[in-house]
Amino acid sequence: MFNVERWQEIFEAIAKNKLRTFLTGISVASGIFILVILLGVGKGLENGISKQFENDAEGVIWIWAGTTTKEYKGLNPGRQIQLHNSDHELAVQKFDKQIDKESANYALWNANIVYGKETGNYDNQGVTPEHQAIERLTILKGRFVNVNDIINSTKVAVIGEKLRLDLFKDKDAIGEEISISNIKFKVVGVFMDPGGEREESRAYLPLSTVQKVFVGGDKISNLAFTLHQKDTYEEALAESVQFTTEVSQILKGKNTVAPDDLSGIGINSTIENVKQFYDLNLYIRLFFWWVGICTIIAGVVGVSNIMMIIVKERTKEIGIRKALGASPFSIVVMILHESIFITTISGFIGLLSSLLLLELVGPMVKSDYFLNPEVNFGVALTTLILLVFAGALAGFFPAYRAASIKPIVALRDE
What we know:
Largest sheet: 6 strands, mixed, barrel
Order of helices and strands: HHEEHEEHEHEHEEHEHEEHEHHHHH
Domain MacB-like periplasmic core: 21-239
Number of helices: 14
Structural class: alpha+beta
Helix content: 55-70%
Strand content: 15-25%
Subcellular location: Cell membrane
Distance between the termini: 34 Å
Main location: membrane
Number of domains: 2
Keywords: Cell membrane, Membrane, Transmembrane, Transmembrane helix
GO molecular function: transmembrane transporter activity
C-alpha cells in the first residue's frame, strides 16, 4: 500500500545528503551503464561474425591445392600440387549421394578489364552454374553462368555491382562487351554479394571458357561443395567431418601427397568453423556479463555501505520508533525502500544512457566483424530485475541491523 509519509521521509533523507546520494547513484548508474554497453558490444561482435557466415551457403566445404611439406613415395617436399578437372569429377562421382551443390573454380587474379575509356584490375573466376547458390549471389539483372555456357564455352561475364558502377557508371551493362586481358566478353548478368563491395568487385565467367581462352588447360584453383541438410547440427557436423576426411584421402592419393601432409591439399569446412564461432560468442557474452555484474556488485557494496552509515546516523530515531511500537518488519521495509529507490532510479538512468549511446554511436561503427550493437528487450528487462534485486540486496543487511537494534540501546546512542 502506498505510504505518503514513508516517501516523504525518503526524499527528506536524500535532500539532507545530496552529494552522498549523488555519488552513490553514480556508482550504481555506471555499473548498469557498463554492463549494457558491454552486452551491446558483444551483440555487435556476434552480429558481425554471423554476417561473415552469410557470405556463403551453410556448410560450404572448400578444397584447394597447396605445397607439400613432407617426402612421400620418393618425391621431395616443396612440390606445388595442381588440381585438375579429373579431381573435380572424381570427388563428385565418389560422393554424389552426399553432395547437394558443387562447383569448380579457376581464378584469374588482378586481370585488366576495359570498357570504353574505363579500365581497372579486378579478380575473375571461371565457375560452374551452382557456384551462384554456394556464394549466395543475388542476380540484380540478367542471369548467371548456365550449363550451355559451360558446354559451348561461351564468352560471357556476370559482373558484380561494384564493378558495374566502376566501369559503366549509371549505364545498363547487360548486352555490353568488356575486354578481359584483351579478350572480349559479353555481360549477361549483374550480381550482388552479401560479402559487400570486395566480393562485388569481380566477374564470374564460364569455367570451360576460362580454361580454353586463358590457356588454363584442365587446371582448377579450388573446389566447393555443400552437403544435403541434416536434422541436427551434430549430424551435419559428423557428416562434414567424414566427408572432408574421405575426400582428402582420395585427392591426396590421386596427387601423391602424404596422408598426414596438411599443406598439400587444403580443406576448410565452414560448418566445422560454426561451432568455434558460436563458442567464441558464448565466451564473449559470459565475459561481458561477468565484468558488468562485478561492476554492479561494486556499486551495490557502495550503496550498502552508505545505508549502513544512514542506519548508524538514525539509530536513535529507530530506537524511538521501536519504543513507540514499530515492528522489526516495518523498520526493514523503511530501510529497503530507500535503498531500492536509490539503486532503481540510478540504474534506470544508467540503462537509458547506455541504450541512447548504443543507438547513436552503433550505426557509425563500420567494421566487417562488428555490426548493429544492440540490447534486446529481454536483456533490458533482465537488467531492470537485476536493479531491483541489487537495491534489495544493498539495503538488506543495513535493514536487518536496524531491525535488530534494541530500543534501550538505541536511545542511549550519541
